[in-house]
């Protein structure tokens, strides 16, 4: 089974947390080179753990197993005799190598902590495919995909970590979990569900409040609007006014060919709606990854790409040519490397193994983000749960459970609730990230801390440190490192008292 392009657009533009659309390729060579430079050996070794299919039932099918991939780096580990810590990344909805390559913070701080690094892949993604590793079988229907849930994934991580510590004779080694975006949500939930395994969690850009009437469905696009408007009022107005112009031109005789040429679209151009989706994707992901240094995460991008997009739109050389302005902006996201000769709106490849996020967005990860008010940079619209449910029913044959995440992990009255029973969690959010609207933005207690960066973007704190990083970002990472150090010191103190 393959995801239809228009369904990918629906689910991933507005629902996906940590994913690149299939419209753009991801060149990872630069990040791999950086990892290699920092570690003369291979940056990680891939290993496999025999994982159970179903942790919560005892019927015969539950005892089926699959090969669960994880990556490990022991270059800096102090070893079990010193009870040196184990830093675990709770994998997202894609190939785990992609996330390891983009979580340089763990590599950067590992030497100081003498930490073992472990990156665990999420079931049904990358190479961790149940049912014999056959995607055609694993993705075939709701009966097999029903084992793709966040609770099952967390249980996978718990089982693997316990077994790994046992095999390393490191039973007393403290474990700290890390994660960004959906992985950050999993890290925070892991700390709450398995406090006997992880002593603390760094949850970066984790919108755990983006569910069930907790966060406004207008929040996501309001933040994107604010990002572009903060750079230039003209930039905001040009983008906001462009959708009607594209729609009107697309209806004229020869209009689609005019649009195709104006935006450098390849010959297999579809329709005006596809073009609008392509442009909206660029604005969404540029806002998410508005990093202060050049990046190569979703696409190669310059530092502060939102500013660069608006610079292209405000270029006086394009005068009143709206399409030329938008073409210049789109090039920032889709062609900063300058290698594209045309843009393929019908590209359906998936270089990151993100195949089944659509399933998760149709079952439990019901995160309202599609609302657009009159001020929005995108066309005015309302979030409709019924539309989501109907699409999910048509495609997967399932009814979403919009209340399940808050039932399973909480979310309502979180500041009051977690103050009573939670501890040792860091929630980082950058306010330029549209997902920050669903994040924890203020301290809950002395041990559940919110770090908020006004200029921060999507899990920017987890990226490799560079000499060009601004002071505020260096300060964020220093705060996180100091807090983690206190967790580990307290753990060692308590361990000594136990003996």
What does this molecule look like?
The structure is a single chain. With 499 residues, the protein is of the alpha/beta class. It has a domain at 26-213 and 404-498: Rossmann fold (3-Layer(aba) Sandwich), CATH 3.40.50.1820. Helices cover 43% and strands 10% of the residues. The chain has 19 helices and eight strands. The protein has helices spanning 5-15, 29-38, 96-101, 104-113, 135-138, 142-145, 150-167, 182-193, 219-231, 233-251, 255-262, 272-288, 305-313, 322-334, 357-363, 385-396, 404-409, 414-421, 471-498; strands at 45-52, 65-73, 86-90, 116-120, 175-180, 200-204, 425-430, 448-453. Strands 1-2-4-3-5-6-7-8 form an eight-stranded mixed β-sheet, sandwiched between helices. Helix 8 (182-193) links the parallel strand 5 and strand 6. Helix 9 (219-231) crosses helix 10 and helix 10 (233-251) packs across helix 14. It starts with a helix and ends with a helix. One of its GO terms (biological process) is proteolysis.
- Would you list the SSEs in sequence order as H and E? HHEEEHHEHHHEHEHHHHHHHHHHEEH
The CATH architecture of the domain at 26-213 and 404-498 can be named as 3-Layer(aba) Sandwich
Percent of residues in helices: 40-55%
> DSSP strand (E) fraction?
5-15%
Low-confidence stretches: 1-40
- The strands making up the biggest β-sheet line up spatially as 1-2-4-3-5-6-7-8
For the record, give the distance between the C-alpha atoms at the N and C termini, rounded to a whole number.
Answer: 55 Å
CATH superfamily of the domain at 26-213 and 404-498: Alpha/Beta hydrolase fold, catalytic domain
The CATH topology of the domain at 26-213 and 404-498 is given as: Rossmann fold
CATH class of the domain at 26-213 and 404-498: Alpha Beta
Q: Total number of β-strand segments?
A: 8
Approximate shape = globular
What is the mean predicted local confidence, pLDDT? 90
Largest sheet: 8 strands, mixed
